[in-house]
Write a structure and sequence with these properties.
By secondary structure, this protein is of the alpha/beta class. The protein contains 34 helices and 33 strands. It has an 8-stranded parallel β-barrel, surrounded by 7 helices. A 7-stranded mixed sheet has the order 25-26-27-24-23-29-30, with helices on both faces. Strands 20-19-18-21-22-32 form a 6-stranded mixed sheet, sandwiched between helices. α27 links the parallel β19 (664-669) and β20 (694-696). The protein is globular.
Amino acid sequence: MVIQIDSNQTYEAKTQEIAKQLLAETRQKRSLWAQLQDQMRWDDKLLAWTMSNPNLRVQMFRFIDCLPALRSKGEIANHLQQYLGDESVELPSALKGVLNFTDPNTPPAQLAATTISKAVETLALKYIAGEDIGQITKTVERLRKEKMAFTIDLLGEAVITETEAKDYLQAYLDLMQHLSQQAKRWSKVPEIDEADGESLPQIQVSVKLTAFYSQFDSFDPEGSKAKVCDRIRILLRRAEELGAAVHFDMEQYKYKDLTISILQELLLEEEFRTRTNLGVTLQAYLKDSEQDLKNWIEWAKKRGYPITIRLVKGAYWDQETIKSLQNHWPQPVYNDKAETDLNFERMTRLLLENHQYLYAAIGSHNVRSQSLACAIAETLNIPRRRFEMQVLYGMGDQLAKALVKRGHRVRVYSPYGDLLPGMAYLIRRLLENTANSSFLRQNLEERPVDELIAPPKVGNASQLISNGFPNAPDTDYANSDLRNQAEKALVQVRGELGKTYLPLINGEYINTSQTVDSVNPSNPSELIGKLGLLSIEQAEIALKAAKEAFQGWKKTPVRVRAGILRKAAEIMERRRHELNAWICLEVGKVIQQADAEVSEAIDFCRYYADEMERLDQGHILDVAGETNRYIYQPRGIALVISPWNFPFAIAVGMTVAALVTGNCTLLKPAETSSVIAAKITEILVDAGIPKGVFQFVPGKGSEVGAYMVKHPDVHLIAFTGSREVGCRIYADAAILQPGQKHLKRVIAEMGGKNAIIIDESADLDQAVAGVVYSAFGYSGQKCSACSRVIVLDPVYDAFVERFVEATKSLNIGPTDLPSIQVGPVIDATAQARIKEYIALGKTESEIALEQEAPENGYFVGPTIFKNVSPNATIAQEEIFGPVVAVIRVKNFDEALQVANGTDYALTGGLYSRTPEHIERANAEFEVGNLYINRGITGAIVSRQPFGGFKLSGVGSKAGGPDYLLQFLEPRHISENIQRQGFAPIEGVD
């Protein structure tokens, strides 16, 4: 049973008393000269300005984020003007004076660049304890003289390659070795080196689990655990030899449960079970953190030896909030700062009242928070070994000194490393320092003492909600229950493989004389199902049935048609895990990406239902004495020809768009994904679609598909597929057939040769990860996939090196395994075609990487070419596989020219922190969907309507506000309502 004293008032009086004492210590008056010095320092001026001007704060922090990537004073001056010259920013007069230059290469501009960059460097070194091993050594020795212990965190947020993961481990091994040598000459400091007669480790390091394995993923808990634990064991063994303590930081919420699971299992191993110089962090801003602490207490009782829990409030609030809003997931963090403070106090009591099971490290710069911990520890007379106070380097210096003076052990969290990887850490610290709710800021402003140390009061915190269309949330596979459902669905579906699926004609499944096998591209010997292929005669029957059904369907009220779509969406949501498994097995897509596809299909159903109800209102254009109605009517019979690469989402999207607009619809899927189309058929039938209105017509594209495209009764063709087939459909549909009384409408999406531009200001961590996912997600078989990377010369070599290493780190194999990032290509024909392009690429350019791939199955290893000519075949033709051409350019003008230099205009991307480059890309990058500082795949219905132009396709964007108009014909009805000169006039009695 977890021990907790229930009364909030038990410690309150003592908390108030201690808080007043600590506040008095932290607010000691400084000399006039020290105050004058601060007023003259540019780093302090920057902080003061950002606290008083929210827009300046945003732009200044964006500039600071970009600064380490800038390679000259001219670049720095140019970016200063671009960021701080924004219309939204009201500049202080001193800053206006600094930025008063016209040419970034003039002496005034150079002076401005020097002044600001030096100020930012000074600011960074307030919070970063050293840039190299020598500096960090001096810092910790200074801290020890001030009777403060330390824990060292190696800066660097993103580990995206296995080389970086191994380097991360080695860096900590080297750091511990170096400090242990230095420690031999350190004098003993009793306040931090011993407690209750026990010697304490002089050295402590703080590490992040995700940095030990580049593919750390909650969806692959066992694979992640195996890789991470192999490396952590090495670290822990060496730490034991050197007498060092190791603390495990907590990161983003999606990693929390897996991190806890790994550590609880590892630290119960016999080798580590008795170690008490280990610890883990909990974040009080998480709503489930109190329960996590209770679980740790129960775990510690079973272990029999305590570890330390570092209790902090949390550093990723903005990121967690944005992620939950974007994904329509429950928000894991509290919205109200007071809620976090209150939870922190609850957890502090819980932790300290169970000190015999877990040691406590209370990490906060809030005087009240630390005072409560002091009050509890002093009231309960907790042994000194069992608790300590912690602050971040540069954040709570006066508080730390006051706590030391009070007799408590204080540890300073001290990050060290290069400024470039440290920028993310610096921005978090600046956000914390300048936020209105920050205790440090409020104390600096000398708010009334009683206000600062009052107990947290929670108001009615509003739940943040996303604006616009409510997209279906993807599955959050950090949740173990949902992972288990995914695993069970794969087992269930495997038990249903090998069945025969027949065409649905006029409400009946009909036998066919010909069938085709659909197999698992990861393992072609595994039969997914047999498909009955329609004959031309049966296709004719289907078309007649559609023609007969049309008269009734077009008169069916829109609310009824929309209701069927919404019912279909409900069924898809209910069958989500099963559908994911079918997509995974039939077309070789990893479960997470299959899941996103099901979400998109659900969104199409709901969004198009909403849109048709909007369009059904028409437009009222009345004038006095005359009504004018602008309305829409369905076209007739729609033929949907869907692709194999998005066999569920695109097929559903085109089909339900045709249906909800009142057209009778025939779905002819790609042969390699016909089982998935049969599942769509099951769903639409279950949702109540009338017979003849929707028909499932699998067949040979060159025979049955071509016959239906040319048929005079077909009014509209919606196609997604190759440029060759799309152009043929477009040409065939344009020919007026005997008896045809209409011109056919063709909606065609035909692929792309998509490029991502990376300029010299790009965040390479972000760019490399984004390009890897955009290029090799689903083995490069998305029409939106990146197949060209256009990199400016200053960062070309650095990008290629990291891109290659990150790609090497990907796991290739069957997509039903949770550890896999890259699966097979769709079939043997695709595999052979892609290999031909790779062979050609070797004659045109230089190969940077050709990954090995499994022999069994239709696999092609990710392949990267470097120093590719923009006019090379592999840089011009759509390959539709895991092959990327990396092109070097001199400047941004050339980058745009190369990007626009193909026949396609589907998707494109830009990684840049240069505002004018972003502005130019918006205006000049010729693509239907432009993505800036993010991956270029994964368009979301309503939020990112999808489609291109040039030879990427024709028609409006799927998932957008004008998509349904293509399936409709507009009509206008004007009626004279005057009778004998009389008509009602609005507004006149």
